[in-house]
Amino acid sequence: MEQFWQKLTFRAFRRSEENAIPDKIESNHPLIAAGLSETTIDYIEGLVGEPGKNLQLYLTALTHRSVVHDPATPHLIESNQRLEFLGDSVLGLLISEYLYRHFPESAEGDLSSNRAKIVNRKSLAGFARSLRLGEHLLIGESADPLKIRKSESALADAFESLIGAIYLDKGIHSAFDFVLHHVIEHVNFNTIVAAEHNYKSRLIEYTQSHHLPPPLYSVMTEDGAEHEKTFTIGVTCLDQLLGTGTAQRKKDAEQLAAKEAMERLASENIIES
User: Which domains are seen in the chain, by residue range?
Assistant: First the structure.
């Protein structure tokens, strides 16, 4: 275990084999001060089994972008944003194949809708919470640890980043085993498939059925530091504000705005064609 921890800590400060490696890492280095403990190493091994050669991937997967934005952090540190990008694609592929094979009677539109419900930020954050993933995130010293560890966006990003790390380290079959166990076999999977989360699509269908122009989304306010920014977005139709939503991602804020709009439209006739 000690050898594995030393390897992981050492490789965390390498960007490539060409970069020079410092002879000694100072004890007050931000990643050492708030870095991976042996408990977290055991946690990773419990989730994915014995990691392969690319041990740095798992440290990167747990590194929130606030670490990179922290003034005390060296430029060699990489956040999990790139791994999140890859993990998002890997997860989408694996869920798509599962739905294709197990729902042979479903049309393309239904398959797409169900996939969207499974891989949206709220669902992914729920999977991450079930794994207690937030407890093991590396967070910048100037950020709010409690807020980030509970953040839907941070948890979803870390979950996808972990899938990306497993894919690069151990291959597609190991990534599928992880997704199968922690997503597909999740206790809430059937509920997620049955739920209707895509409020933007429902709002578009509503406007089309009432011969109205499509809804327009616009950013009303942006608040917070760069790594903790929140967006408030409003949705309008015929210059009438139907709803607003606030989230750390614009897409999530748009969904919340559309949800509020649908709830208002269900209770009163706000728009007339």
Answer: 2-194 (1.10.1520.10), 199-267 (3.30.160.20)
